[in-house]
Amino acid sequence: FVFTFVDVVDNEDFLPLVKTPTEAVGLKAASLPAPQTSTALQNISLKHPWTEIQNTVYNICGSKQLWGNNGNVFSFDEFQEHPENVDEEQEAEEGTLEDGRMGPRLNWIRKARWMNSGFPGSEELSREKNSVDKVSVLQQQILTLTEEVKSQKELVKLLHKALEAAQLEKRVSSMYLTAAEDKDRLELVRHKVRQIADLTSRLEALEQEKKELEQILALRDSHIQELKEHVQLLMEKNHAKQEIIMTLTEQMARELSDPLQEANTITVETLYKQQEEIEHLKDDIDAYKTQNQFLNSEIHQVTRLWTSVAENEKALLMKCACLQARNCQMESKYLTVLRKLQEAVPDLPSSHAELVKSLIQEALQWDVKEEAEEVSFELNTTLCPSSEYDEYGFMTVPDYEIEDWKLLAKIQALEIKSNKLRSQEIVEKPLRDRWNSIGELNPSAELKSLIRSGIPVEHRQRVWRWMVSRHCSPEPGHYQRLLEQSRSTEHPACRQIELDLPRTLTNNKHFSSPTSQLVPKLRRVLLAFSWHNPAIGYCQGLNRLAAVALLVLEDEESAFWCLVFIVENLMPADYYSDTLITSQVDQRVFKDFLSEKLPRLMAHFEQYQIDVSLITFNWFLVAFVDSLVSDILLRVWDAFLYEGTKVIFRYALAIFKYNEEEILRIRDSVEIYQYLRFFTRMITDGRKLMNIAFNDLNPFPMKLLRNRRSMHREELEAELCELEQIKAAYVKERAEQGP
């Protein structure tokens, strides 16, 4: 509240209140002893406004007695029924001073009297100054008194509101006290709670309306700002036009005022025309600028829409991929059940057996490509293309001749597709982004980790060329000279090469037919290598190594040097010699590692007299070609070209670890051999196999591998020497016995 004496009162008691207990109201509260006076308006309670109004009016009435009839507007006659005289007032003042508690109040009363006494010293001012000064002083006093009247009116309004609230509370309290039963009191309390809830909801609605109005105000402010900028632009344009007009006018005036150049001056009409043309051109420029602004706004909106559509499209593609992966899993489980039923056909009734056979035939006739045709949008094929062949020409569903294996191939294709769909966004995309960020290739732990995870198709050719060139520098023209030599002279291995060409990667469309484009390239690469390395010439298995190099590197000379790098740098010496002595050594080393890393499985093999080298020998000789599915095979080759033969040992152990539980459940040696013939084709999760190879089988030091090779090589050479001696003795004995 605004009073004329607010500036005078500093840190003194103002309107001392009677502190009432929260439990009592009305006469019961008034009958209680008054506590000590408070020190500020902060003690006014809104919980019992009627009591507070009584205290406030009492204080104001007391103040009125002290002010007297000095013309002050602080008059509350309606609250004073028995005015007191001045002597009583003086006695009250003396009593309060003696009491020691009303001292600050007396000071406040004296200061208020001084403020309302009509500005002391005004008579001296009237004697010293003229009437104009008196009028100004009186006007100032009128303004001050007017402000006081306004403040008193506001106080009266507030007091009326507080009085109404107090009366309402009094009525409610009286109803609560006069209620006969607790049920009625509870109903009153509930009514109050409902009123509070209603007021709260109204407050929330008002706040919401306030926020909406603030938003509208902000939009209007921005619109006003745009209009201001537009007006500013128009003003600047107008100013520029005025400057041009003034310049042209001055120029025309100068030219017309010069009598020597009258013949060369431009007429006024011509100047006006040029000026009009300039104005038109400027208007056109402004129009183009405005149009450009609108176009930029539309482009921005279209870009936002495109971004939103792209995000929705990505979400839909991810959802489609998840659904496709789930569908592949369900189909794979269905085919697995059919395969189990197929194994149990001899024990089933004839009707059930016929039903199982018909279901199997129906499942085998279903083509993987049908799924892509059923999908109406083309983007699904970009997410995970469904095709008969993969990126390098390998068949996604191998065409096995054995009827039992056809269903197995179908299950394998579905599992591979499901794994690809699930890992597309989670694994493959971040890995591809990391590969895209790599510039120049340099050996490092990060590059090693990336290569182990698998090289993306778009980077594989570049990385393979780099890995080959690190250890095997191509000699310019050397490959062409070898080709000329093979054309002029027939190599002894030429016949064997021709026999092996049709048997190379029969599940790949680039080698499945004699007329395929890569078959002549493969022939030239193998002939060139046979002349390049006469000690080896040609060995069965080299055709598969060269074929994989051709598929990835595409250029036959690069494939030739890749074959040279594998045979002469990665593999140990004599790995592809006539005796294959190092290959046999690696089989013994692998059995040692198998006993150490997978002792249960090795004991199982020994129990049923299984010689794993009959299965694994070909793995090591051709680096898993024709044993693993193409996607996993190329990941193995990525790490093999970077780290060497240790990777072959890791993956060979990982393959057995991957299928260990399945093998342990088989209790027959013949069934174990049959299972080992195709169990590598059942591996569909390349990520899981990679984690087993490079994490679960650690540690795998290269030094240990070298020591084992050296030890077993000495043993094998001693055994071969002993066999040669036995053979020589046998030949000598037969020669002595005669024909």
Automatic annotation (TrEMBL):
Domain Rab-GAP TBC: 454-644
Compositional bias (Acidic residues): 86-97
Coiled-coil positions: 189-226, 271-298
Any one GO cellular component localisation term in the record: cytoplasmic vesicle
Region annotation (Disordered) ranges: 82-101
Classification via InterPro entries: Rab-GAP-TBC_dom, Rab-GAP_TBC_sf, Rab_GAP_TBC_domain
GO terms assigned for molecular function: GTPase activator activity; small GTPase binding
Keywords: Coiled coil, GTPase activation
Short name of one Pfam family: RabGAP-TBC
UniProt name for this protein: TBD2A protein
Annotated organism of origin: Cettia cetti
Gene name of this polypeptide: Tbc1d2
